[in-house]
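Example with several molecule types.
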Amino acid sequence: MIQVRELTKFYGKKAVVENVSVNIHPGKITSFIGPNGAGKSTLLSMVSRLLDADTGEVLVDKKDVKKMKSNDFSKRVSILKQSNFMNVRLTIRELVSFGRYPYSRGRLNAEDIRIIDQALDYMDLMGMQDSYLEELSGGQRQRAFIAMVIAQDTDYILLDEPLNNLDMKHSVQIMKILRRLVDDLGKTVIIVLHDINFASVYSDRIVALKDGRVVKDGPTDDIINSDSLKEIYDMDIPIKQLSNCRICVYFNS
Amino acid sequence: MKKRYLIVALIGLSFLSLFVGVSHITPMSLLDFKSEETEIFLISRLPRLVAIILAGAGMSISGLIMQQLSRNKFVSPTTAGTLDATKLGILVSMLLFANASTIEKMIVAFAFALAGTLLFMQILDRIKFKDAIFIPLVGLMFGSILSSVTTFLAYRADVIQNMSAWLQGDFSMIMKGRFELLYISIPVILIAYLFANRFTVAGMGEDFSKNLGLAYRRVVNIGLILVALITTTVVLTVGMIPFLGLIIPNIISIFKGDHLQKTLPHTALLGAIFLLICDILGRVLIYPYEISISLMVGVIGSGIFLYLLFRRKSYA
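Resulting structure tokens for the full complex:
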């Protein structure tokens, strides 16, 4: 369990995250949603130690993240940021191998290699493991990064807008993979999403932020309703039930 | 680009380099230990070869580290002001201590090289517009500013001609007793190899490094210290060698990618080979005179650099 306690972050005099307390339940997908500038990415960055909070604390399995060694932390929590723009020429396999860095410091043993093979296999990347990242499409590259995180083998996986710049097919593919990571491998996934419908269809819990504060926090079914969405987005959004998906029709509201 | 081909080429060229020159030396004449040929061989030819190999490998690796840490393929000691800062440091050491010893010069120049490189990295952090070409341009401007300060000080102290003469990269002055400082680059290159994986991770950005539990700042600082050390020793013994740190890592990157643990040996080897070729050409072209290495590398290197720039459209 990740416990966020009264976290606050100022940029200049403006609080981008203000007094946020959230519990992240293990073995579930939790989506952070909210309008632009709500503080979703900042919150994610503080949970993953990329940013220092001004006040408050984050506990991972009851331990204060600030007191954890960075090596131990990187075996428990991994984060993928939204812009994985890279001009480093690495092959997929080399990238995935770096997922083992916290364990092996670059000296891969047989166990590391087995895990790397497994991760490549799981993401269906074996056939192109020697391609350079820059030669890949956006969806393939995102899969390569997720394979790296799988090799990193952390209980908690944090993703900052992983669907950015992906087309529909690849977005669905990535979300299905994340679902499998939770259902098959027992991972805990926290994800910042822009598209409310991906959050509705794939996540177990939703945390909605607005102006740096948590406005809603609960199981997906409790959040995806017109009243809550009105509060979060200031829009009247009708909800349509399609088989077992709840779809928010926001396009003309 | 196989490592063993590079090693064979290096050995062949080294052999050639040892027996090219004004005084005629053949392998047979070395059998007589007391002969004049043997003496020239030991005092001039061998030190020259060692200096070329160390300087070539060292400058290429400095460039490789800088490109990785700044995440820009066109950053190198030449295009980030490191060379100019070193030059300023050497001048300052000469002005401060009338008869500066090599070690005193070394320490002051190293401090300047490191400070200059750190300053450039600070500028880099503040630039929002991180265009591949724009950043080295900023570096060149920064270098020119440092260089103009150097020229001003040298002018005031009346040592301009002096300076421009010995800062021109030149191996013809390398002799026993005047190049040993370059040996510092051997442990530095070994340390760089030990840090290769960390540099590769750091090259993927601060967030990426932190995710993998890497102490990003510390690794960057260690990298810059290594770069400043190599640059200082090379400039002090050989002089300025432009472009080397720029083109060699780029060529290797095209063929072998950017996994430093795999590419570092290749980069070092190709750097030494390239410098050897330039040096041999410089000695042969206007025989019995000699074209200085900085001119040779400048001409050939800028040609290759232009080619890389045009090629970039299709590959980067």
